[in-house]
Amino acid sequence: VQLVESGGGLVQPGGSLRLSCAASGIIFSRYGIHWYRQAPGTQRELVATVTSDDMTNYADSVKGRFTISRDNPNNTVYLQMNSLKFEDTAVYFCKATWSIYNYWGQGTQVTVSS
Question: Using one digit for the tens of pLDDT, what is the confidence trace for 71-84?
């Protein structure tokens, strides 16, 4: 099983990025997919979730700015991040969950800086 995040980088405040999480080795459509983030010295926090039946949920801190979506034929989940703020700076991880199974990616760095 492999989850590979991509799309991170350096962006100015107010800018946008789209993160991707590409999965292999799982029956992707069964899994709920979550984006977490972790800033230095903080705990990992849940940012957004898309369920196997395409329901979505967001942390209050990103509602209205971030959008999670899934592309089952391509085994990929996206996190569109708009109106980025300094406090969105973190390593972003995706996680796949189904029943007792949980898999994490290695993360991608997002830095919001002027």
Answer: 999 999 999 999 99
Structure tokens at 21: 């999480």
How large is the average pLDDT for residues 91-108? Answer: 97
pLDDT at site 3: 98
Q: Which of 90, 110, 111, 93 is nearest to 102 (CA)?
A: 93
- Say if CB 93 and CB 36 are below 8 A apart: yes
- Single-letter amino acid code for the residue at 107: G
| CB environment 68-94: b (16+ within 10 A), e (fewer) | bebeeeebbbbbebeebeeebbbbbbb
Residue type (1 letter), 41: G
Q: 108-112 and 9-11: which strand pairing?
A: parallel
Helix, strand, coil distribution of the chain in percent, nearest 5: 10, 55, 40
